[in-house]
Design goal:
Distance between the termini: 44 Å
Number of domains: 1
Number of helices: 5
Helix content: 40-55%
Strand order of the largest sheet: 1-2-3-5-4
Shape: globular
Strand content: 15-25%
Number of strands: 5
Largest sheet: 5 strands, antiparallel
Order of helices and strands: HHEEEHHEEH
């Protein structure tokens, strides 16, 4: 009887340890250039020639880049009828969630500011902006304004590059 209880306890302990390790947050690299991640993200969703990289200050009308941002790359579709946009921000330790909030506010504000114009000009693109997502990968914060399938491809491409081996 004691052997059964001991065996069962050991099995439950092992199962609990496996479950906890499966729930552990992944570890990400923090030394890749944002331009490298931007190139991978764009390549995951289309022809890189159909996208351009924004110059510094591109989003200054929407928000001031916080001082904890160490680098960023913004990629957007060059076709005026396509709202696709990807932003990749690298931040200092401990600031990823703050930057996530900044970017979520940017996306919400962008939709509110431009919805009427988009409805009259490119209504089929509104769901991309409405459903845009922001994700954190260690010290990188990425937003994607694109279709659901393309967002999944962008985040997957970035995660694959950033995962620690």
């Amino acid at each position: 009887m004691k052997t059964r209880i001991l065996t069962l306890s050991l099995a439950l302990t092992l199962l609990l340890a496996l479950a906890l390790s499966a729930c552990a947050a992944p570890s990400y690299k923090n030394d890749l250039p944002t331009a490298t991640l931007g190139s991978a993200a764009v390549a995951a969703i289309g022809n890189p020639e159909d996208y351009s990289t924004a110059e510094e200050g591109y989003l200054d009308d929407y928000f001031t880049t916080p001082s904890y941002v160490t680098a960023y790359t913004l990629c957007f579709a060059t076709d005026g009828n396509n709202l696709d946009e990807i932003g990749i921000y690298q931040v200092t330790d401990g600031n990823a969630n703050a930057m996530k909030t900044v970017l979520e506010d940017y996306l919400e504000d962008s939709l509110a500011r431009n919805k009427d114009w988009y409805e009259s000009y490119i209504p089929k693109e509104i769901p991309k902006l409405r459903d845009a997502e922001v994700k954190v990968f260690g010290n990188y914060v990425i937003y994607a304004i694109c279709s659901k399938e393309d967002r999944a491809a962008v985040f997957s491409a970035v995660a694959d590059l950033l995962k620690q081996n």
